[in-house]
Amino acid sequence: MASTVETLTATQVHCYLERVCFDGPKSSATEPAPTLETLHRLVACHLRVIPFENLSLHYSTHRSVVIEKEFLLEKMVNKRKGGYCMEHNTIFTMVLRSLGYNLYTIAARVYLPNDSESAYPGGLIHMAIIVTIDGIEYLVDVGFGGNGLTAPLPIFDGDSIETPINGVLPEEHRVRKIELCGALKNGHKSWVLE
């Protein structure tokens, strides 16, 4: 896996925006500005159009997740298929970087409150995105499937933010820092999406 996420050409961004029915500029020469409003619209468009699915993972001979740019563009944009969390968030990261957003990706996992063996049973097998806009970090995750975020969630402004947001669907999410049961270091806290 590459250490940095690639960017897309203006034409590739245009094709992606067409695929997700983005209601902003449609010309490959004119890209939407990297604002919070644009990010909200991009997340909503992506979630409405590109499904979370793992069919190709189960029905292929190689049984692995491919996150190479050309593969993802062919699969999710040209063939109009869905994908797994890392596929969704990798292509979305490429789009955001190409539009000028300041971001980084993070490893994550599904946390179940009754996990008792360790803080990370099963390992960190999920991917999400942290986008910084005007000094505030937002959690963005277009690859979780059901019950996932449907809007950027503000999580950190130098201290912390525990204000819940309402997304596109009738739902509410927040991020809190809590001590995980079985953490390797006493008192260690991790961010948990609720």
What's a concise summary of this model?
With 194 residues, the protein is an alpha+beta fold.
How would you portray this structure in words?
The protein is α+β, with helices and mostly antiparallel strands. The protein has one domain (10-193): Arylamine N-acetyltransferase fold. It has five helices and eight strands; from the N terminus they run αααααββββββββ. It has helices spanning 10-19, 36-49, 55-58, 69-78, 85-99; strands at residues 102-108, 126-133, 136-140, 153-156, 165-166, 172-173, 175-179, 189-193. A hairpin with a 2-residue loop joins strand 2 (126-133) and strand 3 (136-140).
Described by the principal axes of the CA atoms, the overall outline is globular
| Continuous helix count | 5
Classified by CATH, the class is Alpha Beta
Q: Structural class of the secondary structure composition?
A: alpha+beta
Biggest sheet architecture = 4 strands, antiparallel
Oligomer classification = single chain
Unreliable residue runs? none
Strand order of the largest sheet: 1-2-3-4
Report how far the terminal alpha carbons are from each other.
29 Å
Tally of separate domains: 1
Mean pLDDT: 80
Percent helix, as a range, is: 25-40%
β-strand number: 8
Integer-rounded radius of gyration: 17 Å
CATH-defined topology: Arylamine N-acetyltransferase fold
What string gives the helices and strands in order? HHHHHEEEEEEEE
The percentage of residues in β strands lies in 15-25%
- Label the CATH architecture: 2-Layer Sandwich
